[in-house]
Structure formats: structure tokens, C-alpha cells
TrEMBL record:
It comes from the Bacteria. Residues 63-90 form a coiled coil. The keyword Coiled coil applies. This is Zinc/iron-chelating domain-containing protein. Keywords: Coiled coil.
């Protein structure tokens, strides 16, 4: 691990702990509505992107803990990533050609399904302890851009008031942590904090110093003048 990432990962883990506490509070207050249980993998087929801090974190945990499954998982990630690339390319062209509005495309993408490469044959996550924030909040009411959402398998009823997580605030925190990474690394990629990528790409990407734009620690030695 690049040393500068460790304190930011600690901050991310503290934020994740807060997210888990919010989920458990809602589940405790509305046990009849939260239907999450072992081997329920509805959220594992949703299409969403990770912020830079989440992508780097899950990539590191993948390297640290899944060496024995690495080859198989990389193959699955490749297949998923190709599918997602095709979906996003099709959606981009539809907006670019004026065939659909951006809002229409976002709604259609939200309805698409794609099995997460980390979902194993037992319908359990191979990196469950390190799963992204989106996975941790799935199953309770959330809102983004003023639009509410919850899992279709839950017992939350439309038109009824429930505690709702503001995803705009959550994403702002994740974006801030991502920008901290850019600053801590003194990265030459000043816009890198805005990166969004699916889990499949986060697994496949080699986040080395070159990718992260870390300035070279050693300069090429100059030839001595003769």
C-alpha cells in the first residue's frame, strides 16, 4: 500500500462505521420493513459506480485477501466490465444523438441488472466486510437529487414517511476523501478525485504510482559534462 493512503483509508473506515450504524438504527426501528438477510443478493445486481477512495480501498482489500481466488475473480470482472462498457456506451450515444434525455438514460441504467463479480456461487460477497457504501445502504430508504429510492423487496411503503439517508451528503463526503488522496499524493492528475468506476474496473485496475500521478521520487541522473 502507498503509505499516504493509509490515514485516508482510516477516515473512510470511520465513515463506513457511521453508515453501518445508520443502517442498523433504521433496521432496529423498522424491522418489518428491512428484509436484508443472508444470500439475498438483490443489491449485488445493481449498477453503480465507486468514488476514487472506494475504488482504491476495495482494490487493496482484493489484493490482500483474495489471492487464492484472484484468477477466477479477474475473469469474472473482465466479463462484467465489458458488459457495463457496452451499456454505458449505448447510453452515451443515445444522449449525444438527442434520442433520449440524460434523465431518461439514468432511469434506464438504474433498471439494468448486472451480477457483481464479487458475488460467489453461494450468493454471498467475497469481500463483504469491505463492501462499498452503496451496498451498505441498500435496503433502507435513500434519496438523491430529491428523488427517493428503496429496495423493491423491502416493506417500506410509498407515501409513508421513513428516516431517509441523503445520498448527496454521503457522496460529498466520499468525494472529499477522494480529493484528499489527490492532495496527499501531490498527484499530477488534479481531476483524479472526480473519477467514478464500477466495482469490476476497481478490481481490474493497477493503481500504481504512474496511474495515480505520483511525482517521481528520483530524477534521472544528469550526464557529467566532460
Amino acid at each position: 500500500m502507498i503509505a499516504e493512503l493509509e490515514p485516508i483509508f482510516k477516515k473512510y473506515e470511520a465513515f463506513v462505521k457511521q453508515i453501518d450504524e445508520v443502517f442498523e438504527k433504521v433496521r432496529s426501528d423498522h424491522p418489518e420493513c428491512v428484509k436484508c438477510e443472508l444470500e439475498c443478493a438483490d443489491c449485488c445486481h445493481a449498477i453503480f459506480d465507486l468514488t476514487l477512495v472506494e475504488a482504491l480501498y476495495i482494490n487493496q482489500k482484493f489484493i490482500d485477501t483474495l489471492e487464492d481466488k484472484k484468477t477466477n475473480l479477474l475473469e469474472k470482472a473482465n466479463r462484467v466490465d465489458r458488459k457495463l462498457h457496452q451499456l454505458k456506451r449505448k447510453a452515451f450515444k443515445a444522449v449525444e444523438n438527442g434520442e433520449k434525455s440524460e434523465e431518461q438514460v439514468l432511469l434506464e441504467m438504474a433498471a439494468e441488472r448486472s451480477r457483481c463479480p464479487l458475488l460467489n456461487k453461494e450468493n454471498c460477497c467475497d469481500l463483504y466486510a469491505f463492501r462499498p457504501v452503496t451496498c451498505r445502504l441498500y435496503g433502507i430508504p435513500t434519496a438523491i437529487g430529491g428523488h427517493g429510492h428503496t429496495c423493491g423487496l423491502s416493506g417500506f411503503k410509498e407515501g409513508t414517511s421513513y428516516p431517509t439517508v441523503n445520498l448527496d451528503a454521503v457522496n460529498a463526503k466520499l468525494s472529499a476523501l477522494s480529493q484528499e488522496i489527490v492532495t496527499a499524493l501531490n498527484s499530477t492528475h488534479v481531476k483524479m478525485g472526480d473519477i467514478l468506476m464500477p466495482v469490476s474496473m476497481a478490481i481490474l485496475t493497477i493503481f500504481d504510482e504512474k496511474y495515480l500521478g505520483v511525482p517521481s521520487a528520483q530524477k534521472e541522473p544528469k550526464e557529467e559534462q566532460k
